[in-house]
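Re: your question about Transcriptional repressor DicA

S., sorry for the slow reply, the queue was backed up all week. Below is exactly what I fed in.
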Amino acid sequence: MHIDQVIRERRLALGLTQEELANKIGVSAPAVSKWEKGVSYPDITLLPALARILGTDVNTLLTFSVTMDPEESRHLYEKLMTTAKDAGWQAAVDLAEAQIAHYPSMNSLQLMIAAFLQSLKSQIPEADWPSVYQQIVAIYQTAEKSTDLPQAQVAAQSLFYLYLKEKDFDAAEKQLTLLPPEVVAYNAMEPKLKLQRGQLMDAYISGEKLLGTGLGAVSLILNVLTQVGLADHQLAVAKRYADMSQKIDNLIPISNPYTLEAQLKVAEASNDPNQAVTIIKEVLANLNQPQPLVLQHLTPAKSKEQVSLKEAQRQLLQIFTADPEMAFLQKSPSFQQLLHEYNL
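Result:
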């Protein structure tokens, strides 16, 4: 049950009109009406008093905090993109706020919405961006306090990269000190312990998880070095790092976004959108690759409703289209043709 339903049912059970409830809480009757319609939500500072007046507690009042399965999250992301396109950035921001209010304890949703709001920057007037930026910061700050440690770490890292992208360097430096250091040698102790105990399957699983994490870290470092080369106007150096990342991916075939980003940045610096399209086509064609043999003991995560290859490819193209850093692709007729093939 959502909070709008909770408020309405409790109010009616107590025989209160919307105006009477509004007077007791110190807001207007239209405000209560909007709460019950799900158009807006009570300020967090009003929740204790509202819960008391309705004869309940804050925890019960917030029992609407259900989760959303992966398929629902995908549909929400598409709805956010459609809203931004058809009704404008403000409508999309309002929808995002409403969804976070509906699911305040769902960290994966918060992270997805924060990333979406960042993608809207090119559509938002410069004068309005600071307020949206602060909303994104607040979302990440909430998520990094989660009891779900992996989600909290993703939020903390995402906040660092947000500060970095916004050139808020002092905040980024402070955030960096809060991130736990990832020490591969220390992490490798777990599969070593499993091995010594004779727990071979557990040793495989923990070791392969570490391998995946390590490969991601290496690709991230090579991605950064690629960008350093580009910033230094050393295209050949940047290309060398990007190619090295690609060779690692070819050796151990794990779809790695950092390798893809490095290649696309080199293509952009080379003013070669057609090369970028070629890279994207290769990625789209490889989306249905089986689990690499070096990770054969890990069970791939599956959503309740399997997404077809065509739909997965379409979703990836939507991400490229929404990313302002990929704007150079719009100059390529072959990219436009690719979008047309997927009805985008």
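The longest helix spans residues 200-231. Residues 184-306 form one domain.

Happy to talk it through on Thursday.
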